[in-house]
Amino acid sequence: RMNVEIKARLSDRDALLRRLEPMAEKHTVLRQRDTYFRVAHGRLKLRRSTVCGGGVPGEESCSLFFYDRPDARGPKLSRYQRPQLDGEPAALTLQDMLNRSLGTLGTVCKERHQCVRS
């Protein structure tokens, strides 16, 4: 799979959400915890997400991502693989295995707003 990633700074997130929400068919708020592991090429991260607004509150998902993208400013083409994991226990076991075998680079916790329109 591929996507184009664009990161930007926002001076007023609430103002942007007020403009996006009327256009969105679905607005979901997620709390995400990304754990990054040491690898020779590309990036490897384990993402654990919990729905905290919209969708089914408390619903959890876990994915392992391997992706390769340039370290550059501006839009970046990212090629990735993302298998879904079967629940939190499997994710915690996998996280422990990857940490013991590869080592952890760091963890990023964030809140993500997904405004989706078909």
Describe it for me?
The chain is α+β, with helices and mostly antiparallel strands and 118 residues long. It has one domain (2-7, 35-116). Helix content is 20%, strand content 47%. The protein is built from two helices and six strands, in the order βαββββαβ. The chain has a six-stranded antiparallel beta sheet, covered by helices on one side. A hairpin with a 5-residue loop joins β2 (26-37) and β3. The longest helix has 16 residues, at 87-102. It starts with a strand and ends with a strand.
Q: Ends: how far apart?
A: 19 Å
State the assembly state of the protein chains: single chain
Strand content: over 45%
Structural class: alpha+beta
Helical stretch tally: 2
**What is the string of helix and strand elements?**
EHEEEEHE
Shape: globular
How many strands in all? 6
Number of domains: 1
Q: If you compute it from the alpha carbons, what radius of gyration comes out, rounded to the nearest whole angstrom?
A: 16 Å
Strand order of the largest sheet: 1-5-4-3-2-6
Task: Indicate the percent of residues in helices.
Answer: 10-25%
Arithmetic mean pLDDT: 91
The low-confidence runs, each spanning 5 or more residues with pLDDT under 50, are: none
Could you describe the largest sheet, including whether it forms a barrel?
6 strands, antiparallel
